[in-house]
Amino acid sequence: MTWHILGGGSLGCLWAARLQLAGQPVRLILRPAALERFQAGANQLLFTDLQQQQHALTLPAENATASPPIQRLIVATKAHAAACAVADIRHRLHPSSQIVLLQNGIGSQQEVAALVPDLQVIIASSTEGAWLQAPFNCVHAGNGHTQMGSLHSHGTAPDWLATLQQADIACQWQHAILPVLWRKLAINCLINPLTVIHQCRNGELAQHAEHINLLATELQHLLQAVGQSEAAQDLPTTALQVIHNTAANHSSMWQDTQQGRRTEISYITGFALQQCQLQGLNCPQLTALHRQLQQHLRQRGLPDH
Ligand code: NAD
Ligand code: KPL
Fold first, then answer.
1. Fewest Cβ atoms closer than 10 Å to its Cβ: which of 102, 108, 110, 174?
2. How far away, in angstroms, is 178 Cα from ligand 1 center?
3. Which of 10, 188, 205 to mutate to test the pocket of ligand 2 (most atoms within 8 A of CB)?
4. Quick one: which of 97, 42, 41 has its CA closest to 68?
5. All domains of the chain in start order, with CATH
């Protein structure tokens, strides 16, 4: 069964390379300009694995308008592009198609699920790290794992999960994926905007522990209000632990701003604030953080949403 991977950025290339190396049939679905570029390079994907071994792979690719039906679709776009990308490919999906969403933050998953209410939508939350040193030249930079689950609690693990595990793709089925998403959202709210505002690596945020504690308190109230008390536990300590463990890294939001790309702000602090409003929670720290981040983005000529 072919894996169709929508989006040839860092994570799309990482998944494509590992699946192909494991002997799985893979096809990339690219935007017209990206497809042209990929084809001009003889459909070659360069991949550097965690052991620094380089692989030159050749993969078939197409754009969304091709006609063959899709059984398994991995959506590897940014959060703000996911719903549009799935809408563009909707005509190739059928009732037994499965969609795996790799987006960070919360909100894009619900947008996609609303577009395809009749299909199985699997949500993934990944701590892996990958980046592109050039287009279609992907480096697997950080070992991590991917937790997957269905938005609806009745979802069951797909039979291909074992195939991924055999292919050394560390992944695990979670009967309740929402707590995983909420916990990661809270950590991303505490780290990503501050790395942009202070223009620093994750590790330097240790100097801002007091601010992080204030923000974490508001986020804990939010998590409790939305029924995610477990995700609220030890949040400040965990955030500082992540800051310590990823001290040398630049957050994904920092990288986006440096490269002049739209950030996922609406699906991180934007989503958290929207939920605070829905719950009637007063969250001055989060509001100020979000506004400061928006201002920073506008100053750089980037979208503030
Ligand atoms: P990226 O910007 O490198 O790649 C996204 C790709 O999707 C781009 O190449 C873009 O052109 C393409 N795209 C957008 N709309 C498209 C469409 N309609 N059709 C075809 N292609 C389309 O982003 P990324 O780093 O790969 O991240 C993808 C998601 O995974 C994000 O939500 C990110 O937060 C999350 N994530 C990334 C990492 C990582 O290490 N890169 C780790 C964990 C989670
Ligand atoms: O997930 C991350 C991100 O950068 O988006 C953290 C955990 C902050 C690591 O950099």
1. 110
2. 21
3. 188
4. 97
5. 3-175 (3.40.50.720), 180-299 (1.10.1040.10)
The token pair that represents 113 in the structure block: 């699920």
Q: For residue 137, which amino acid is it?
A: N
Question: What is the dihedral sign for C-alpha 223, 231, 291, 274?
Answer: negative
Q: Whose CA is closest to atom 4 on ligand 2? A: 251
| pTM for the predicted model, two decimal places | 0.97
Closest alpha carbon to 157 in 181, 174, 137? 174
How far is the CA of 138 from the CAs of 50, 112, 153, in angstroms? 11, 26, 34
Contact status, residue 70 vs residue 93, Cβ threshold 8 Å: yes
Dist CA 300 CA 92 (whole Å): 38
Per residue in 218-271, pLDDT (tens digit) is: 999 999 999 999 999 999 999 999 999 999 999 999 999 999 999 999 999 999
Q: What is the DSSP letter of 250?
A: P
